[in-house]
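Q: Hi! New to this. If I give you a protein sequence and the SMILES for adenosine-5'-diphosphate, can you show me the bound structure?
A: Yes, paste them in.
Q: Okay, here:
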Amino acid sequence: MNKTGVLLLSHCGYSFMEELISNAAKHSLESFVLSSLPLPANSYRIQELQEKSAWLAVSENHALTWEDVEQVMQELAAQGYHIVCCLSVWEGYRTLMAKANQILGVADMEPAQVELLLNKYQLRQQLNQAGLSQVNSVLLDEHTWIDLQAKGKPAFIKPVTGIASYATFRLTTDKSWQDIEKIQSEIATDLIYSSIFSANRGFMAEDYIPGQEFSFEIIAVDGQPFVVAIHEKIEVDESGSAVLENACVAPPINLNESQLPKARAWIETIFQHLQLQWGCYHLEARCYNDHWEVIEINPRVGGALISPSVSILTQGVSMTQLWLNNLLYQTAEEQLQQKAQLAKFDLGTETYQQSPMSSYFRVYFAHAGRIRTIQQNICCLEPELVQVSLKSGTEVVETAREVFLGQVLWAIPQDKKNELLPKLITESRNTIQVDYE
Ligand SMILES: Nc1ncnc2c1ncn2[C@@H]1O[C@H](COP(=O)(O)OP(=O)(O)O)[C@@H](O)[C@H]1O
Ligand SMILES: [Mg+2]
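A: Thanks. Here is the predicted structure of the protein with adenosine-5'-diphosphate bound:
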């Protein structure tokens, strides 16, 4: 058996394991999986991962620690396995991944850089001081909360470190500091998500950023960032305690020929300032009157269907594949090849080659209640990919984060985009239809 492989860190048995294992296999590499303990209802994932990977270890707790990773690295070495790199799409393990890669001698982000990006308050302060953001931010306590509410300036509340839009909302007069305390106790008991917030349970407020929202999928090679795709969030729902990002299209439809190079140059400036030399990023930003503001910079691949959506644009190379390439291609020659490939996808630059396909995906969220039926309806275009993650009979409880119900991806030929996209945006609302009891 081939004893050379990639160390994959899985959160509670998930984190795109099947996709990552298959990506590794394309490079004739095995997958060594270290997973945190799945929730009792998902314990079958242990056997599934055992069957799909060359080597599996499961930690005692629902969140991995550095000690777990270190121990597994030692065990693998002792058993004669060779780890070429470490990869995790779970944001809570990004620092562990960076530390492991440092030990393995693989060029990746510095662990301290990961920590900076994950701390949205520190990141905002730094961008602000460098003149790269005009957004003011403050750490929240009862006093600063009351102060802000009294001022009445449009403000946005979010955890200093967070994911899944957990507790992200506009500061309005009907909300109170007690709401934050309630959310904090909800987070503390959330077995899957609590570890993300454990290093930093605080909340922050920042100026409300108006405008259209986009995400930039970026791969950095030896100090050079490449924008592999720009997704425009064409439907954002801010009505609840979590901002829901319903539908995305790529390439974007509301950035014109003159705005794209400016956006691209702005990304370059941000990356240079933060010295982000290597890795994969999902940078979220809003644009208003031609002014760009960072929402957050995730040091990882985007969630939802971002990775397969990139595959449509690049005609077959997904974002997770590009990320693995980034970790594997480390010689000067491989880096040159990688740069040449990425340059073709790089929107807003002269090397960009227009893709014959556009991608569009919609995410379906569940709300509280017991699901009676889930049905898939046909619309004007056959989907590329349909994923439904809940089933009838599931009881969905009230929560301050997004609850994925399903997601569907479409590939639209460029010459049919004008005709099909508007139809798809409307019709896709009912592609996955749920009835509650
Ligand atoms: N300052 C802000 N002004 C307006 N909307 C914001 C602001 N910060 C975040 N948002 C909205 O909330 C969403 C979730 O916030 P984000 O910081 O991306 O948290 P998460 O890490 O949970 O994705 C963003 O995609 C954006 O739509
Ligand atoms: Mg976000």
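A: The longest helix spans residues 259-274. Let me know if you'd like me to explain how to read the tokens.
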